[in-house]
Amino acid sequence: MKGNRIKMQKSVKKFLSVTLIASMLIPSTLNGYTAYAADLFSDQGMNELDEFTDKAGEEDGKSVDTVGMPEAIEIFSDKGLNATDESSDKKDTLQLQGDYVNEIKDMFIIENCHNGSMRIKSGKLEVSEKPKIEGSSKEYNFTYTYNRERSNFLTTRHHSEYLGNNKSCVFKSQVNALPESKIINNWGTDNLYTVFYVGTYEDEYYYKAAFQEVRNPVKIVYYDEKRIKEDWVWTNDALYTPPEKKGSEFLGWFTKSGDEGTLINSADEAIGFSDKSKNNRIELYAHWKDHEHSWKYFKNSNNVLEAYCSEENIKCDYYGQDGKTAENPVTLTLQLAGLNEEGCISYSGSAYGGAKINGKDNFASLTGKTVTGPTYEGRAGTDYKESSDAPQNVGKYTVKVAIGDSSNPKQYELTADFEITKASISPKISLDDIIYGQEIAPNVKVEGNLGNGKVTYQYKLSNSGTYVNIEETELAKLPVGQYSLKATIQATDNYEEVSAECNFNVIKADATNENSKVSIANWKYGDKENHPSIDNSLNPGNGKVTYSYHTAEPCTADNETSEANGATEIGGVPKNAGTYYVKAEISATTNYNSGTATGSFTISPRPVELKWSASEFTYDGKEHTVTATVKNALEGDKLNLQYSGDKGTDADNYTAMITNLGNGNYTLQNSQSETSHSWEIKKREVTVIPDDSEKHIGRLDPELTYKVEGLVEGEKLYGLKLEREPGEDARAYVISAKEDANVDRNYTVDVTKKGTFTIKDHEWVENDIIPATTWSEGMKVKTCKVTGCNYNKMGKYYTIPKSGVKKDKYEGTIDKYAQIYDPDIKGAVLNTSETSLLKELDIFTEDEADKIEQAYKDGKNIAEVWLKISLHTLTEADASFKAAVEKIAGSADTKYFDADLYKRMNGEKDGTAITETGKPISIRFKVPDKMVNKQPYTIRDYKIIRLHNGQIDVLDAFFNSSTNEVTFETDKLSIFALTYKDTYYSPSYPVTGLKVSPESITLTKKDEVAQLTAEVTPSYADNKKVTWKSSDEKVATVDENGKATAVGNGTATITATSVSGSYTATISVTVKIPVEIEKLTIEAEKNKLTQTGETTDLKVKIEPENADEQKLIWKSDNEMVASVDANGRVTAVGNGTATITVTTEDGKVTASVMITVEVPQKPVINKTTGFGRLKARSVKQTKTSVTLQWNRIKGADGYLIYGNLCNANGKEYKYKKLATITSGKTQTWTQKELKKGTFYKYVVKAYKLVDGKKVVTDVSTSVHAVTQGGAYGIAKSVSVTKIGNKKNTLEITLKKGQKAQITAKEVKKDNKIKHHRNLCYESSNTKVATVTSKGLIQAKGKGTCTIWVYAQNGVYKELTVTVK
Question: In what order do the strands lie in the sheet with 1050-1058?
């Protein structure tokens, strides 16, 4: 299409389909704006397309896979359209965008109203939908829908004022309205437009639209879902021209694929084949005739093979008369990548992978030849048999590629040569300091020996220039000094020979260690001292040994012996008993460091002889003491004896022992005399007299008391027990005293004296509770008027016989009564006669009955029978009993109680329980107030239900409404339940309505309760009782009193129902129990921070997901490392680790994560310029050069060299940067092209790279050197002749505050020395010792330091200063 290029996809389907859809009519002028479109159906429609080819070997009629769409251009331009220019040849068109249709979301509907106007509307349509034509025969409207997904579809920089963001816009045209008869030919003065749709015949559609000038209206018929429609469209005689297919001939457009279908020559013919079932879509299929190539081959070079087609009848793209004239041959190339200009590549340890066969698939597909390879073969003496595996070792090789067919696989062959050369390596060696004479062989660390080549070693002194061969194991035999080591790695098959160097030191050895011992024997206090010694192995250098004595380890000046230990001087031999430590100090020698050894010994104390005082005493409440004296104490020694067991007050046998002699030089151990002594305090005799006492019958005994004669004044006697005769009858009893196991050990006690104990009887008072009548028995209670008596309030309950009833024959023989221990029961009696109790029931034996009867005749009452009624609390064991009761009584009130029967004779303390009586006894008691019937129109029938030995029985109960008493009979005594059943009869005032409150409630906790209230109408109704029920007891329950209890989340309806009338009312109960958080999980963006202030956000996963929201509390356990805010953002503060914890607000759930902060440490900058850390010196001078050497600074990335001429003749020369050393391992540098006999000065600075910048960490002192060829020379060494008074030594020991002068000089190498700087002195630790510029040392504090004495050219001597 004009102005646009359509890219075709390479892959081809079975046919290329073109679809045309009848569309709308567009007036020629749009308010003065011109529309552009491509000529879809003109002769020039496809003359600028890219090539489009089939897959090799496919037949005619196979479809195109995808048709590329043209690039987008502006929809409108400013060019006007002349609506009245009938003779105009130019085609004014509207071009819609095509390549980007699948990226746009908005679309517009362009509607031709057939009335001279065009309407643009916004709308939406999925990409997968097809374009459609909609219309109405009445309104003559057409709508063409574009699938677009781009906002501001019709908005351009020129016309946004017309469309903007409006939903619609109307453009007026200059054409007249269509006539009702639709005689299109009458439109002779207007250009009419139609829209075509072009796309592939696949599931995914690409849409393209254009306004195309056409004449000659054609009437077409098309269908929608309901009816046939017809209208006019305008067509052009030209058809869409397909792209060329390489090597094929286009036969034309057909209505079907394959060999069928009708050839279409015009658009009019195409319309005749429209598909009514597809909205009159017209599908056309392109047919081609394939071309068979006649291939010939031409080898352009050893590694290039070309194929061309020699068929002259159809000259395809690959045609050529010969290999040199073919313009577009099919090319196969063997290419070797990664080689240098000489065709070589260095050994890498991996197989060579640079061989590539370019054009292999295309060559084989088009020509049908088989391309195999590459294969590799050694050449020029390289032993490598031909293989498809690429070589990796050093050698010369040929790469081959074979081209042919099954009959001749190697018809053609491409070759190329390459070579793998030896690789160079950059090894590194290092050697830790060697200790002189060490037994373990030194281990030279060699890194980067990739070929495992043999390593040989050479060494030299750092000051020497000649290397000497040495075995690795021999390095430990070198004397103390500074050395250089060279390691040479011999060449291997794949690697070249190379050397590497490093410096190492042989340092002084330690002959002693922390376990080195001094030998010395023990002795006893006062004996002659023993002398210490050390083993010869601790002093192989024969250094001077001095000894000092100490009281503790480690042996320091702070714990040296003194007069307190009996020593005559500080650190001298101790005299007093004790454990001591001796320290041997061995001075340093040439190859050995100074050392120490320690040992321990004991001066044991002398045993003592003792004399004791003999003692015997009688207890008198006072303290008594025994003592001892030391008979063998040495003259002048004082002893202060301390004892245990030497004092006593109580009667007992004692043992006195000496616990401390008060003098550490003596001991009780191994003493030949008695070191402990036995002595005694005897018991005192006393007499005990019990006091008389009394009590009220039935009460507890009061505490019994007594008096003691002979007791020590102020003391009380313990360990006695008073007892009285047994019995609880009202009479007198004897009190006796007895000793128990805890009797006071200080006395011998006489307990033969006795006392009297009296029990006083009750003082009874009777009161009637229910009077007896002729028709009913009464009830009375008898109480004791003595305050505090058990019967003062509880009382005994008795029956009052009916009036006029004959007296029982045995009345009075037995004291029968009832006792009540249930607060709800206010009165109860045993309603059985004495005759029955004595003679008829299984309570007393015949012998007991006879004794009771005889005693009564004698005027005595010796028997009691009583009923005990107690409150019974239900337990799980009573569950079946409770269920049985509820089954009988329903929801009626129930009173559970125990009824027990007891008998007692002759004043026994405890009674005997009677569980079964053989025949029934009668029990009568008052009904609890809450169970008395108070409801009108109700008859209440009381029942007694008994549980005995697992059996449940229902007993008849007789109710006396005048006294509210129930009487029942039972022959078994156990657990009972009083209940009832009500019978209702019609009341006079029934319930007419019911309401409840509140109307609704919300509970937020499990087991939370709320009281519901029901109110009946009228308020004076006879029966106001209501029942309660819950619609869902999994949400909420309700009891008989209207108390609602929360169970689980949800809503339940509580219904109240009146017993009278069955009226109902409801309350809605909502339970909202919060869902608690069960688990927290922290997810961190990153767990490691590397910059201060860097942040990371922590996210929390909450489980379960529906848990109620809670505030989360964040906390860091180490805010010096990382802090955390309320939203979980962590900020790095300092290096280290911090645990970040998140906790729910209620504190129940927590989670944590570890955050690590690692901020790279910046280099430590040694601000002090000194000789100690970076030592630089001139090691070699020629007439034109100076060589500097310095010690390596650990961690340095390189060194900066500064220098210039030395100041002379009043002129000052500034230091200038001379060189930058980029390796931290380099330790030498040479400046060349200097003047002979001239002085130069230098400074070396060590640096470390930080963020790409050089940061200086250490600076050397200046070095002054002179080139040869002049009158002056340099120092070859520094000589120290004396330190203080010590000559020819490099070590000195001083006391704090002491001073010592260093005497030193430079030793010239050749010519005399001209000084630019005198000898200098520097201390490694000024807290231990300082040194002046003249070499005067002053001791400052305990320890050891180094003093350097160095010359102007950097040679130096190292001294050791120890301060005690």
Answer: 1000-1003, 1064-1071, 1050-1058, 1026-1030
Give the pLDDT confidence score for residue 336 in this predicted structure.
Answer: 92
Closest CA to 619 of 650, 654, 657, 582: 650
Closest by alpha carbon to 217, among 189, 239, 236?
236
Q: Name the nearest CA neighbour of 21 among 231, 286, 180.
A: 231
328 Cβ contact partners less than 8 Å away, ≥ 6 residues apart? 317, 318
Cis peptide bond prior to 920, omega within 30° of 0: no
Place of tokens 């709320």: 1010
Dist. CA 762–CA 784, nearest whole Å: 6
Range 923-951 average pLDDT: 89
Cα gap 837→816, rounded to integer Å: 9
Q: How many residues can be counted in the chain? A: 1364
- Whole-Å CA distances, 185 to 112, 139, 182, 271: 18, 20, 9, 20
* Most confidently predicted of 34-43, 362-371, 1028-1037: 1028-1037
Residue 642, burial from CB neighbour count under 10 angstroms (0-12, 13-18, 19+): exposed
Dihedral angle of Cα 251, 255, 260, 262, to the nearest 10 degrees: -70
- Enter the DSSP assignment of 273: T
Exposure string for 1063-1073, b = 16+ CB within 10 A, e = fewer: bebebebbbeb
**183-192, 391-400, 898-907, 1246-1255: the lowest-pLDDT one:** 183-192
Is the CA virtual torsion 1191, 1193, 1197, 1200 positive or negative? negative
Q: Tell me the per-residue pLDDT of 1162-1211, one tens digit each, with 9 for 90 and over.
A: 665 665 567 878 999 999 999 999 999 999 988 889 999 999 999 988 88
Average pLDDT over residues 734-761: 87
Asked if 1323 and 1305 count as a contact pair (C-beta separation under 8 A), the reply is no
- Give dist(CA 1305, CA 1281) in Å, integer: 8
Say what the pTM is.
Answer: 0.31
Question: Whose CA is closest to 738, among 763, 711, 720?
Answer: 720
The set of residues, in sequence order, having a beta carbon less than 8 Å from that of 441 and lying 6+ positions away, is 472, 473, 475, 476
